[in-house]
Amino acid sequence: MISAEEPSVPNKIQRAMDSQTEEEETCEEHSDSKNCTCSSKSSPSTAASSSDSPVTLKILQNWVPRASHHFDKEHYTYVGHEIVVQESIEHFGTVVWPGALALSQYLESNQEQFNLKDKKVLEIGAGTGLVSIVACILGAYVTATDLPEVLENLSYNISRNTKNTEMHKPEVRKLVWGESLNEDFPVSTYHYDFLLATDVVYPHAVVEPLLATMVYFCKPGTVLLWANKFRFSTDYEFLEKVCNIFNTTILAEFPESNVKLLKATVREN
Question: The pTM is what?
Answer without folding.
Answer: 0.80
